[in-house]
Amino acid sequence: MSNTSQDIALTSDAFDEVSLLDILDHVLNSGVIIHGNLVISLAGVDLVYVGLDVILSSVETAFRHMSTKPPPPGKPR
Fold it and tell me: What global pTM score does this model have?
């Protein structure tokens, strides 16, 4: 994925409803990157470090943002 960040907001009028399917479709079409860290320390000493890196997108979207091309489709058996 590229290093540029885009701020996207899903807004709704008072009479419109945004369904979970609409949100999932938007996420899979554009992709989402989640990055987080959790450090548990006691008396200034780090005891536990947990890192989280998640990329959620469709395969098509991932290949669109990668520099390589997708593998050719397999031969039918």
Answer: 0.44
Residue 46, CB-side half-sphere exposure with 13 Å CA sphere: 6
CA distance 54 to 2: 15
pLDDT tens digits, residue range 11-56?
555 557 778 888 888 888 888 888 899 999 999 999 999 998 888 8
Residue 62 CB partners (closer than 8 Å, separation 6+): 31, 55
**Cα 10 from Cα 19, distance rounded (Å):** 11
The Cα 9–Cα 7 span in angstroms is 7
Residue with tokens 């536990």: 48
Token pair of 40 as six digits: 């548990």
